[in-house]
Amino acid sequence: MMCxxxxxxxxxxxxxxxxxxxxxxxxxPFRPRKRVSADLHYGLGIAGTHAPGLSQRxxxxxxxxxxxxxxxxxxxxxxxxxxxxILALNLVSSPGSGKTTLLxxxxxxxxxxxxxxxxxxxxxTTRDAERIRATGVAAIQVNTGxxxxxxxxxxxxxxxRLSLAANSxxxxxxxxxLVCPAGFDLGERHKVAVLSITEGEDKPLKYPHMxxxxxxxxLNKIDLLPYLDFDMEACVANARQVNPDIDIIALSAAHGxxxxxxLDWLEAQRCA
Length: 272
Known about the structure:
The two termini are 32 Å apart. The protein is 34% helix and 15% strand. It is built from nine helices and eight strands. It has an eight-stranded mixed β-sheet, with helices on both faces. The relative contact order is 0.17. It comes from Biostraticola tofi.
């Protein structure tokens, strides 16, 4: 994974209410292997990526050390969430997919029914956390600086700034990025990949690690279907080509269509 070898995950981290904490990244199992004609493919070596000046073997050594640390922290988070029966979900997507709108509308619908909190990940600003707080739900903003994803240490530190009761929902809105967050275990029970239909039906094939790691794909902004050339069946087929077990929900967070199905999925996970 690129972040574990190029150093883009380090430096400039800021968690609300605290000083910077070192950020360390995690690994993804999906490795495309087929070379197409004369096109260039830098993911065919044993490291699955490329970094100038580093051999494939050295990149694997660096990656292994970094990812082992993150996995230990993620396991600690998962055990802590489990001991308090907290359902932690990691929402991943590209920028502009509608994750924050999905969250605000979800929180408004769950008000008075389930205790919720949110950890917000962005490189800069507290804008998304402020949108969450406007619903009355507690949120901690994590600014990653140059980092392009959250990691288990960041989630651990942010979680301990929240007062979340047992049997609660913890939503982790990751940094908008269809690449790096895919393999970084935060201790969540599920990754939820949010895909706006404005992004095109080919994204599960172009960014397979993300959709292979997700338990659920949410197709958002379906209110725009009449205005776009988007093939819903092809998108579903592409996602299931990468991940045959992925659940899929189509909805419009802004207009409400399909939101009941999403809330039913959340309730099923809480009861699981």
